[in-house]
Design a protein that fits this description.
Layout (H helix, E strand, L loop, with lengths): L3 H23 L6 E3 L6 E3 H17 L4 E4 H5 L11 E8 L1 H6 L5 E8 L2 E9 L4 E6 L4 E3 L2 E3 L11 E3 L8 H15 L5 E3 L4 H9 L5 E5 L3 H13 L3 E3 L12 E5 L2 H10 L11
Parallel strand pairs: 3-4, 10-11, 10-12
Antiparallel strand pairs: 1-2, 4-5, 5-6, 6-7, 7-8, 8-9, 12-14, 13-14
Length: 276
């Protein structure tokens, strides 16, 4: 009996490879930069071209499926998750990295059915690392199985987050206060590679022990959520409740003990939802 979702995943991997090549080729040329909502919210022609490549290729093969794409949403398309088979696409996760040629740039795609993530693909294309995961079948990097570190002691953990401009000064204060609180536990350190999808994969393969963020989007999280879950990691809301793909916030960790310790330290601020 054929497995339709595996066929979707196999097709997605091939499309993602083409998208990664398009990004690598673009890095050899001048990068045309445009601004979205603020001077630090960037988009490039390559973001738009890569998303068009991915969506057109998938639509040709699966015309009845739904899509949530970062650049499509920026252009006015809705960001609503339904029960339909849905592709959630970030054509370049780490656009600021891409603009500066900082080497953590990923194509991230998650595929949901009945609002559940069926598989995820994250291609860190400058590193040429293809992370893949299918529900119930494990997580892989370039075909080799990966798993989280299993670290349960927060004081022995390397934690990832992202820092950046906040237009709300109170959010700015809270962001820096959270970093201070976590460093003061103490932990081994905090790092900010600049790509949510790559951060999740770094936890999935044991190179980091936790990652937290408020203010990202479903397209940043969907691919990596599948990978970290299948690698044995824990994923939850910043509050400690269940992970919600549309909530714009998450903690992923090597163990529940590490995740719950972060929950106790992190002060929340309102970031809205993708489906509102």
């Amino acid at each position: 009996m054929s497995d339709p979702w595996q066929e979707c995943m196999d097709h997605c991997i091939e499309v993602t490879k083409k998208a990664g090549k398009m990004i690598r080729d673009a890095l050899q040329k001048d990068i045309a930069i445009m601004q979205k909502s603020s001077p630090v919210d960037l988009v490039t022609e390559t973001d738009q071209r890569v998303e068009q490549l991915i969506i057109s290729s998938i639509k040709e093969k699966y015309p009845t499926h739904s899509f949530i794409g970062e650049e499509s949403v920026a252009a006015g398309s809705p960001s609503v998750l339904t029960d339909d088979p849905t592709w959630i696409i970030d054509p370049i996760d780490g656009t600021t990295n891409f603009v500066h040629r900082f080497p953590f740039v990923a194509v991230s795609i998650g595929f949901t059915v009945k609002k559940e993530i069926e598989f995820g693909i994250v291609y860190s294309c400058i590193e040429d690392k293809m992370y893949t995961a299918r529900k119930g079948k494990g997580a892989f990097c370039n075909g080799v199985p990966i798993k989280v570190s299993g670290q349960e002691d927060i004081t022995k953990s390397l934690v990832l987050t992202e820092t950046g401009f906040k237009s709300n000064p109170e959010h700015f204060k809270t962001m820096t206060a959270n970093i201070t609180a976590i460093l003061s536990i103490p932990v081994h350190g905090i790092r900010s590679p600049g790509s949510a999808a790559v951060n999740m994969c770094l936890v999935a393969c044991g190179s980091a022990d936790a990652y937290y963020h408020m203010g990202i989007h479903c397209w940043d999280m969907a691919g990596g959520a599948a990978i970290v879950t299948e690698a044995g990691g824990v994923i939850m809301d910043i509050s400690g409740g269940p992970f919600d793909l549309m909530s714009r916030r998450l903690i992923v960790a090597s163990s529940r003990a590490v995740a719950e310790r972060l929950v106790r330290e992190i002060i929340e601020f309102d970031v809205g939802r993708d489906d509102q």
